[in-house]
Amino acid sequence: MGSSKEQTKFDYVLAFLLFLLFCASCLAIYSAQTTSTQYDSNFLLKQIVFYVVGIGIVGGIMIFEPDQIRKLAWYLYGFSVFVLIALHFAPSSIAPKINGAKSWFNLPGFGSFQPSEVTKVCLIIVLSHVITKHNEQHTSSTIQSDIMLLGKILLVASVPMGIIMQQPDLGTTLVLIAITVGLIFMSGITWKLLVPIFSSITLIGSTIFYLVLYAPEILEKYLHVKAYQFGRIYSWIDPANYSSGEGYHLLNSLKAIGSGMLSGKGMGINEVYIPENHTDFIFTVIAEQYGFIGATVVISFLFLLLYHITKVALLSNSQFSSYLCVGVICMIGFHVVQNIGMTIGLLPITGIPLPFISYGGSSLVGNMFAIGLIFSIRFHYKTYMFGD
């Protein structure tokens, strides 16, 4: 490789997009809390504080070059797994079960913190490192080397996935799967290997889904799964018959979004009650009070963010940096699709927030950690005078 020149450049476009998302988040949370009597807390003020903390995280990460972050990959991964294990064995006084899941630390003076939100980004970093190192060692790809790489990826990803499933937290596990699958597809592994594998997985998944709907007794007999455990799927398919239970959120979400029509009812007018609408169901607040136009604006902000990260990935001449961008795109993109999809009935309901919009310190810290990686890539962009 020839000599290189580093061009330190702050990404003003990315900063502006974050500012737009910050404004949208503040407006949505303010609209939610002014119409809710469920809580006394000032969620808007807390969200602003979380954003300030997030900016500090971005600034701290931006100091490090991508190559320096890569050297820390295994340390970050190991620490994140250690914290997940510590959470599993922590007493209920500092790690209480919330809604049946042991996913949060209750930290004095800070509140609850969900370590799996940071684990997502640590997984992106370590998988990007694993793929880059493998490709550096195997310049000519073979079936054997591709199988080896696939094995490495699955082994590394399965550890945090397994621990998080024990909490249990299906939503976060699905995000980790989305990150892993996205990086597998972009890793250079031959399609001759990927097509039969993912075709088989799709066939198995489709078969299980069919059995859940039409022959749950088979799953009860052979997999020892009880029919009531599929309540979320049944309520998703037919929410009207589960209106007093699992389908309550979905029915009210559809009513709220539909009633907003084109321009919405206006700020502070919230006629459909949805519990905790400032978190996972923040999109219903936006759609009801600001209508199709307001919802489209927010979706556009998120789309522009993903588009910009894609541009950063294409401009990068570092394989590791490009994989980081792919992982961040998969993480944020899956969050957006799943969150909005579940509020409009296209996907089953899971506890996945809308990135940068929903209230929540853990989610915002994890997302800002990821965005800090993108800022680092742009800030320490290197141009090469000569090629190899």
Describe the protein.
The protein has 388 residues and is mostly helical. It has one domain (16-199, 233-384). It has helices at 12-33, 43-62, 66-71, 73-89, 116-137, 143-165, 170-186, 191-214, 216-222, 231-237, 248-260, 282-315, 319-343, 361-379, and strands at residues 4-8, 105-107, 111-113, 380-384. A two-stranded antiparallel sheet has the order 1-4. The longest helix has 34 residues, at 282-315. The N and C termini lie close together (4 Å). Mean pLDDT is 88; it is low at 384-388. InterPro entries: Cell_cycle_FtsW-rel_CS, FtsW/RodA.
Please give a handful of descriptors for the protein shown.
14 helices; mainly alpha; disordered C terminus; transmembrane helix; cell shape; transmembrane; two-stranded antiparallel ribbon; two-stranded antiparallel sheet; single chain; membrane; Rod shape-determining protein RodA
